[in-house]
Amino acid sequence: MRVTADREICVGAGLCALTAPEVFDQDEDGVVTVLAAEPAGEGREAALEAGRLCPSGAVRVVE
Length: 63
Ligand code: SF4
What we know:
Blueprint: E1 2-5, H1 15-19, E2 24-26, E3 32-34, H2 42-53, E4 59-62
Antiparallel strand pairs: 1-4, 2-3
The structure holds iron/sulfur cluster (SF4).
Iron/sulfur cluster (SF4) binds next to helix 1.
């Protein structure tokens, strides 16, 4: 699994960091940062869920 997030289109909603805090964080402007680009264990399911929830489509998860 490979996780990326497009900081150009992130709207700072924060759902990714709430849903998968081990995989995503937000910087001081609220823009997404990826903490774990290749999550393992529970982080995998959480990353997929974050991809489904992200309102801007910034989160990309490729199996
Ligand atoms: S859920 Fe999407 S729009 Fe919101 S902070 Fe995360 S990447 Fe950005």
